[in-house]
């Protein structure tokens, strides 16, 4: 079989603006890049990116969605979130409904395959909570799911947004969906793929090295969940959302070798997923980042 191309997108809230800018820059260099993709996969904010591109919408449309104005709307108004989500998802849902006119279902996305992880809190089939990988491969049980609902389920970050229809953020177990995308493609693509057929470009939401300098041996539930006087202020969520990203990177690199590439620019500072004021800085980071190694890899491996 000829090369099977996968493009994946991490979770990271407003840091989706960085990914949108990177995609636009790549398309400026390779105008047919997105048309060549067989599978788009994204978690949380990455599910919006993946659904946008799988719908055949342009990189310019993606950049417009991730405007500072839109992200300010999605993350407002703010509430004290000890006993309720920090934000309603009403504004976010309204933006998605405008972005995906006609309220398409996954089965309506016929230009490309797409996949978005989420986590179901009460899977009646399994009688357990359970990871779910929404996709639109032939025979998928998810073809009648609305694209907007899938995005809201994949992006329902605990404490930030309410759970949506019994689902929470896919970043709980696959904030970098690269390894999951490889597995889903191998399991569902017809004719069957071999691992050596797969080529994957993974795009992240920015790398911010994180460490916990203080002694954690005496920490209990409160310190791990909320530690406002130290950085990161929500250690468990940071580990779940950012720490596991590099695990997937390592596994995907081992699986695919040189047919795998990770594009994830370093950030100048730690940026929370709801920090819409950081959007200009994120766009500048993506605009200034040296793409030469990525362009070389695409030239050597993608075509």
Considering the chains and any ligands shown, give keywords for the structure:
seven-stranded mixed beta sheet; 303 residues
Can you walk through the features of this model?
The protein is α/β, with parallel strands linked by helices. It contains twelve helices and seven strands. It has helices at residues 16-29, 45-54, 59-65, 68-74, 90-99, 147-154, 171-174, 178-188, 221-225, 235-256, 279-288, 292-301, and strands at residues 4-9, 39-42, 113-123, 128-135, 167-169, 198-203, 260-263. Strands 1, 2, 3, 4, 5, 6 and 7 form a seven-stranded mixed sheet that branches. Helix 1 (16-29) packs antiparallel against helix 3 (59-65) and helix 2 (45-54) packs antiparallel against helix 6. The longest helix is centred in the last third of the chain and has 22 residues, at 235-256. The radius of gyration is 18 Å and the shape is globular. The protein starts with a strand and ends with a helix. The relative contact order is 0.19. The model has no long low-confidence stretch (mean pLDDT 93).
């Amino acid at each position: 079989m000829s090369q099977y191309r996968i493009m994946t997108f991490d979770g990271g809230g407003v840091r989706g603006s960085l990914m949108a800018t990177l995609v636009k820059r790549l398309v400026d260099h390779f105008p047919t890049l997105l048309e060549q993709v067989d599978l788009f996969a994204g978690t949380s904010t990455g599910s919006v990116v993946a659904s946008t591109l799988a719908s055949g919408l342009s990189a310019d449309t993606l950049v417009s969605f991730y405007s500072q104005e839109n992200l300010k709307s999605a993350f407002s108004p703010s509430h004290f979130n000890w006993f309720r989500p920090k934000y309603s998802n009403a504004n976010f849902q309204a933006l998605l409904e405008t972005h995906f006119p006609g309220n398409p279902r996954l089965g309506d996305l016929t230009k490309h395959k797409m996949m978005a992880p989420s986590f179901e809190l009460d899977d009646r089939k399994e009688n357990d909570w359970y990871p779910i990988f929404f996709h639109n491969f032939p025979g998928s049980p998810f073809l009648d799911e609305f694209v907007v609902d899938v995005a809201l389920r994949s992006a329902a970050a605990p404490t930030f947004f309410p759970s949506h229809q019994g689902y929470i953020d896919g970043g709980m177990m696959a904030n970098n969906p690269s390894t999951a995308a490889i597995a889903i493609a191998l399991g569902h693509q017809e004719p069957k793929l071999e691992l050596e057929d797969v080529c994957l470009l993974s795009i992240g939401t920015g790398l911010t090295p994180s460490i916990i300098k203080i002694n954690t041996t005496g920490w209990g539930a409160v310190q791990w969940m909320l530690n406002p006087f130290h950085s990161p202020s929500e250690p468990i969520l940071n580990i779940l959302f950012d720490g596991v990203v590099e695990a997937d990177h390592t596994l995907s690199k081992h699986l695919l070798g040189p047919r795998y590439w990770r594009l994830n620019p370093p950030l100048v500072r730690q940026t929370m997923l709801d920090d819409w004021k950081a959007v200009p800085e994120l766009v500048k980071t993506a605009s200034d980042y040296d793409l030469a190694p990525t362009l070389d890899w695409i030239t050597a491996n993608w075509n």
